[in-house]
Design goal:
The protein has 468 residues and is α+β, with helices and mostly antiparallel strands. Helices cover 36% and strands 20% of the residues. It is built from 16 helices and 19 strands.
């Protein structure tokens, strides 16, 4: 994946930097390559970012507005960036572009208990918002695996998901309104704290998941919900991933909606257990982690129903966490699955989704494609909402790895789309998947996306080369 290259002349770039320093003298601006290097990449393997013109750290909406206004005036492209935890290349640097890092806009402006809402800047860490909401007896459900360091702005840009999506939904479901700096530097607000608001087009939804290609989010109003009961946790082990997939489909068909329904295949179970020594069944071909936060008798009913579905599907063992501490260990181990696989080599995590009833077929397809391409693959993910993360693990020095992985990825995407699924369930399109967008959406739908991009960013300065 090569970087988009800006056509702006060296003189224009130099004039832009001079104007930026003169207009915003308090703005931290890095231009030395040694200092900007760490801001070139996100967490996506096999990306080839460009060399940025510089890296700026605004601290207010006014800063961002002025940066964008000057960039538009000098035709210099911009790359908005949060913590860099993305997995699709959405925040990777562009040659000749200014990377705008929003992590210093990190204030929780309000926790509004009466309206069950939070107002935050984009640099707020997901977990910090969760803790602040909990102090008010409220709950912010979206929880990407990187929740301890990813930012709300990045979550909004990618429409991130997480372990609790099966019950609560993704980031989009919790965004009530936004403050956005447009491509000419003007600032708009969309939505607000109203529980119901259907005035005009839903501009909030357009910006969520747009990966900084339509505007830069500088404030978000987010929906909170009442704090749930403590979780009860169940593990089920299976003789095959297809049997685990069948259990997922059966749980869904039974109308059980756990807060967490996660899958790990044998490769991932072994990698996690070798790292964390949790006593997992290393002989099992797959494991499901199922949790309920319904509370009381209802939680027991949900887990009992899920256990029955697992046993009917062929589970070899089903057991509950002994206490909240053990449950938390297991949950954290699932979140650590990507890191556990990275210990075995270069781990290229992917992200696809299918209708929940198709999870067994998709797992079979991943096994087939892995065998055909001779690539070890660990599979884990949010099986309860059909979102799977096939992760290729290769030797660090393998010169054929990227080519073989790309061929296998293409086959997996084609299989997912054939099942009515998606090329990305929560990681976004970025640079990693933009070549496959038309496969899923079709040429006419992509043309509509291009028209929206052209209308909002006619000069193409916002995160160029991403998504489309």
């Amino acid at each position: 994946m090569t970087s988009f290259r800006s056509a702006v002349s060296a003189d224009a770039r130099s004039a832009f930097l001079e104007a930026l320093r003169a207009t915003l003298p308090g703005l931290q601006l890095l231009t030395d390559a040694a200092e900007t290097e760490r801001y070139r990449f996100d967490e996506t393997e096999y990306t080839r970012p460009g060399q940025p013109l510089g890296v700026a750290f605004p601290t207010s909406t006014a800063d961002v507005s002025e940066i964008v206004r000057l960039a538009a005036e000098h035709a210099v492209p911009l790359v908005p960036r949060g913590a860099g935890s993305g997995l699709s290349g959405g925040a990777t640097a562009v040659d000749g572009a200014l990377t705008v890092v929003l992590t210093r806009m990190d204030r929780i402006l309000e926790i509004d208990r009466a309206n069950m809402a939070a107002v935050v800047q984009p640099g707020v860490i997901n977990a910090d918002l969760g803790r602040a909401a909990a102090e008010a007896g409220l709950f912010y459900p979206p929880d990407p695996a990187s929740f301890e360091w990813c930012t709300i702005g990045g979550n909004i840009a990618e429409n991130s998901g997480g372990l609790r999506c099966v019950k609560y939904g993704v980031t989009r479901d919790f965004v009530l309104g936004l403050q956005v700096v447009l491509a000419d530097g003007s600032v708009i607000r969309t939505g607000g704290k109203n529980a119901k608001d259907v005035a005009g087009y839903d501009l909030t939804a357009i910006f969520v998941g747009s990966e900084g290609t339509l505007g830069i989010v500088t404030e978000a109003t987010l929906r909170l919900v009442p704090a749930p009961a403590p979780k009860l946790t169940l593990l089920a082990f299976f003789p095959s991933v297809v049997a685990a997939g069948a259990a997922v489909a059966a749980i869904t068909e039974a109308g059980i909606v756990p807060v967490t329904l996660e899958l790990m295949d044998a490769f991932t179970v072994r990698a996690v257990d070798e790292w964390h020594h949790l006593g997992l069944d290393r002989d099992a071909a797959a494991m499901l982690m199922i949790e309920s936060d319904a509370g009381g008798a209802r939680a027991d009913e949900e887990l009992s129903g899920a256990a029955d579905a697992c046993l009917i599907a062929g589970a070899t063992s089903v057991l509950r966490a002994a206490d909240a501490v053990e449950a938390d260990w297991l949950r954290q181990a699932r979140r650590a699955a990507p890191g556990a696989l990275e210990r075995a080599g270069v781990a290229r995590m992917d992200d696809i989704g299918v209708p929940r009833a198709c999870v067994p077929q998709m797992l079979s397809e991943i096994e087939r494609i892995s065998a055909e391409h001779g690539l070890p693959v660990g599979v884990f993910g949010h099986a309860g909402d059909g979102n799977l993360h096939p992760t290729f693990v290769v030797d660090r020095g393998d010169p054929t790895a990227e080519r073989r992985i790309n061929a296998a990825r293409a086959a997996i995407y084609a299989s997912a789309v054939a099942l009515g699924g998606t090329i990305t369930g929560e990681h976004g399109t970025g640079t990693a998947k933009k070549g496959y967008l038309e496969l899923q959406r079709g040429a006419d739908a992509v043309a509509v996306m291009r028209a929206i991009k052209q209308a909002l960013d006619p000069a193409g300065i916002l995160n160029p080369g991403k998504v489309l």
